[in-house]
Write a structure and sequence with these properties.
The structure is a single chain. With 254 residues, the protein is mainly beta. The protein has one domain: Sandwich (Jelly Rolls). The protein is 9% helix and 31% strand. The strands form four sheets. Strands 1, 3, 4, 6, 9, 12, 13 and 17 form an eight-stranded antiparallel sheet that branches. A hairpin with an 8-residue loop joins strand 14 and strand 15. The relative contact order is 0.22.
């Protein structure tokens, strides 16, 4: 009986201590903002809508800052070959990005010459867009790769002409006041709902001779060197091939 009483007393004491610890760990503020999530393919209520099918007011030419000259038809924007890449008017650092894309259903060429475009995060780091349906190429250049740096974990590509989606979590690089790199960029990507890049470290710019980080750079598709140590635009690539985009939205992460 004495053992049972001791056990009950110990259990009660343990439960009491656990309750105290739990109470001490409970946090009630700040309360997270209440938002509407994705419903019927609509963007979350706190998202910045970059393209809803109506206009390209959120975009401009990457090369000369003039109005974006890509083609809009039936709620879809398509690369206007020769018009050049386009970039957002607004700059971002850390974000969640949703973007849907489709290479032309007409198969022309092979490898890198088939449905090629790209999404340049911070206008510097390319997430590859490519028709990778039964289209062999180097794996760190197929759809879903960080170009020439990281191959996707799996190939989730759909047939040419089908719509596909990327859901992206991007953490921008951080520089010290001295200009030294404190933290590189990191990237997580879901392709058609499947994880293909899991918090990979980006080695540096993907379009330079070697991957590099610098507080001064000439972003992809541009001609002017500038400060690249802070928020930067998002750039979509004109690679001379027909690729379409729709339903582009972004949530800034702080």
């Amino acid at each position: 009986m004495r053992k049972l009483i001791s056990s009950i007393t110990l259990t009660g004491l343990t439960m009491s201590l656990l309750a105290q610890f739990a109470n001490a760990a409970e946090v009630y503020a700040p309360v997270p903002d209440k938002i509407k999530g994705v419903m019927n393919n609509a963007a979350p209520s706190d998202a910045i809508v970059l393209f809803d099918g109506s206009d390209l007011d959120a975009w401009q030419s990457a090369g000369n800052d003039e109005a974006a000259a890509w083609t809009i038809e039936d709620g879809v924007v398509t690369v206007n070959n020769g018009a050049g890449s386009i970039k957002t008017r607004q700059a971002f650092d850390n974000f969640q990005l949703h973007i849907e894309w489709s290479p032309t259903a007409t198969i022309k060429g092979e490898g890198q010459s088939r449905g090629n475009s790209g999404i340049f995060l911070n206008s510097i780091f390319e997430l590859q867009v490519l028709d990778s349906w039964e289209n062999p190429t180097y794996v760190n250049g197929q759809a879903g790769s960080v170009y020439l740096q990281h191959a996707p974990l799996v190939n989730v590509s759909r047939p040419p002409g089908a719509w596909q989606s990327y859901d992206i979590i991007f953490k921008a690089p951080v520089y010290a006041a001295s200009g030294e790199l404190e933290s590189p960029a990191y990237l997580t990507v879901f392709h058609n709902g499947v994880l293909i890049l899991n918090n990979v470290k980006i080695l540096g710019a993907t379009y330079t001779e070697e991957p590099e980080y610098s507080t001064r750079c000439t972003p992809y598709g541009q001609t002017r060197e500038q400060d690249c140590s802070g928020p930067m635009p998002l750039t979509l690539q004109d690679h001379g091939q027909l690729v379409s985009f729709r339903n582009i939205w972004l949530r800034e992460l702080h």
